[in-house]
Amino acid sequence: MGFWNNLFGGKTKNEKTYLNKLSWITWDIHNHLLPGIDDGSPDVEQSLELIKGLKDLGIHKSVSTPHVMYGVHNNTPETIQSAHESLKSALANNNLDFELKYSAEYMIDDQLDSIIENDQLCLMPNKYVLIEMSYLSESKGLFIIIKNLLERGFQPILAHPERYNYYHNNFKIFEEIKNAGCMLQLNLLSISKYYGEHVKTAALTLIRAGMYDFVGTDMHHTRHLDALKGVVTKYDVRELLRDCPIKNASMFEAAQEKKIA
């Protein structure tokens, strides 16, 4: 009980006790590091600053997941690849050793069906696909999208389920989403009060039930980075998630084995 009680209290230390606290994750599979293509990093300089922060935390591998959201962030495989190449060049020019892959975070909207049908998805290795819903209202097409992705051999991952306020009084829906074949990804900042007390409570409830498959930083800017350093200093995140089958470190192993073979 002492460990769980500490989640709602305690003081954050000032020294750099955040160093390498997230090395066990290996891959950050959800972030907005690519410069200038969504509401994340505005330029290469800030992208490099965020990457240095991830390295301090012990994360040296990342899948960038810029938003694909009709009418707001109209990204395509081409725009994402272009931003990725720009950032990779900057990493090389600055002698930063950081493994960078790219994919996307797909809003379940009127455009997503067409993207899937026209084979325009930016997939993670091993055909993982990160999907999200609006924070304002439930996407009625969630289960249809999950089914469509699975039928095409893709593995959907629902981003930050704890942040969908309309599900906070309906825990059963998370079981239904998992039973439909969709995995769940926790935003690490959700275990603090960064997004609010209700989000924190939902996250801890899902953690206790062992529901999460992945974790991600969902890093957009330096405020997220600073908050994340505080969270990992205050909480033993790995111990907190001990009952969840977190797959970040192993999710790409099969793809790497195929490449070696």
UniProtKB/TrEMBL annotation:
User: Reaction(s) catalyzed by this protein?
Assistant: O-phospho-L-tyrosyl-[protein] + H2O = L-tyrosyl-[protein] + phosphate
- In terms of superkingdom, the source organism counts as Bacteria
Q: Which SUPFAM superfamilies match?
A: PHP domain-like (SSF89550)
Report which residue ranges the record marks as coiled coil. none
TM stretches of this protein: none
Is the keyword Hydrolase assigned to this protein? yes
What are the record keywords, sorted?
Answer: Hydrolase
What EC number(s) is this enzyme filed under?
A: 3.1.3.48
Which family does the record assign?
A: Belongs to the metallo-dependent hydrolases superfamily. CpsB/CapC family.
Question: Protein name, please?
Answer: protein-tyrosine-phosphatase
